[in-house]
Specification:
Helix content is 55%, strand content 0%. The protein has one domain. With 350 residues, it is an all-alpha fold.
Length: 350
């Protein structure tokens, strides 16, 4: 009888153990680390405080809702931590902390728990919170500060520590003291839309521009996305569809009138498109589950984003495009269900 290793033969199916919800959510948090590190490096302690406040407020909101409903705590699945981090990354670096706490409460309370919690929410909770503060605090949500200002690690941006229900502090004097008095107070999208001033692609790629805390560095976002794809914890087709659709739509208008519309590379690298495509549109709960559906869903988001940017009143459209895609996700899943072999079609044919 042979003394070699035994080969155990079993009948199919050969099923591998799938990662649990908390394992997936923890890996998403790990993927967001490069974006968070760059944000703090570029904008200083104001962004660090913003990340801490939104994350803590989201966790406390979910815990309080669970206690009020008499249900076991759900904060251990890490999903609410992701909501807090993503919310902070979509806000301006100097956004008042009390407003960020309000956004956290609304995002988790109305965007997630009102629907029944994780797995039942229709919309991305972080974007629900941001949409609320964009309507409630339009001035604060469009007040930007430049990256890499002097003293960013030793003092807060003045508007960060605004007391509740008071007007945020004017940051113009602070900017002049930091030798950035030439800063226009506009993001690359706003400069392009309202002044037709283009921003160099390399600045957009590396994050040397003003914008929301986590949307400026394409490099950091792509690193996080590549990690999730390598771990098979993100459907790569969704961000691919979003970016491809945005690039194709932008290319069409740019081809028609290059002097009026930005080139497709600017469309891809500017604003929150990259952050939204990689970390928000790919939300497992709010995106379709069918193979064709994810392409339709991503294509819709990319198309709507460019249309809002070019023809809407706002320079950015990613948030509304993703929320629209979330709302349409159940319909898209229903329309793109694959037909089982032998099943009758709507016309009565097999």
């Amino acid at each position: 009888m042979s003394d070699g290793p035994l080969v155990e033969i079993r009948t199919s199916p050969h099923v591998r153990q799938t990662p649990s919800v908390d394992q997936i959510m923890r890996n998403v948090v790990y993927a967001l680390v490069p974006v968070c590190v760059f944000s703090v490096w570029a904008f200083g302690i104001s962004v660090l405080a913003l990340l801490l406040v939104t994350t803590l407020a989201c966790v406390l909101t979910e815990q309080l809702f669970c206690l009020a409903a008499g249900k076991p705590t759900t904060v251990r699945d890490w999903s609410v931590v992701i909501t807090g981090i993503l919310l902070a990354l979509t806000l301006p670096p100097g956004f008042p902390l009390w407003m960020a706490a309000v956004a956290s409460f609304v995002g988790v309370g109305l965007g997630k728990l009102l629907f029944g919690g994780l797995g039942q929410n229709v919309l991305n909770p972080a974007l629900v919170g941001r949409a609320f503060v964009q309507a409630a605090f339009p001035v604060a949500i469009t007040t930007w500060t430049p990256p890499f200002a002097e003293g960013r690690f030793t003092e807060f941006i003045p508007s960060t520590l605004t007391l509740p229900f008071l007007q945020p502090a004017d940051v113009s004097g602070w900017l002049q003291l930091r030798a950035v008095d030439g800063f226009t107070g506009a993001t690359p999208l706003a400069l392009m839309k309202f002044e037709h001033v283009a921003t160099p692609a390399m600045d957009l790629f590396t994050g040397m521009v003003a914008g929301s805390a986590g949307e400026t560095s394409t490099v950091a976002i792509l690193l996080g996305g590549a990690y999730l794809v390598a771990r098979r914890m993100m459907d790569w087709r969704i961000p691919t569809a979003v970016l491809a659709s945005a690039a194709l739509t932008g290319s069409l208008f740019w081809w028609l009138d290059p002097g009026q519309y930005p080139d497709p590379l600017f469309i891809l690298l500017s604003g929150g498109l990259m952050l939204g495509a990689v970390f928000m549109a790919s939300d497992m709960v709010a995106s379709p589950v069918t193979p064709l559906g994810v392409w339709v869903y991503g294509g819709l988001i990319g198309f709507v984003t460019v249309v809002i940017r070019l023809f809407g009143g706002l320079p950015e459209g990613v948030m509304y495009a993703i929320l629209l895609g979330n709302a349409a996700s159940p319909l898209i899943s229903g329309w793109t269900q694959p037909r089982v072999f032998g099943q009758r079609s709507r016309g009565g044919r097999r």
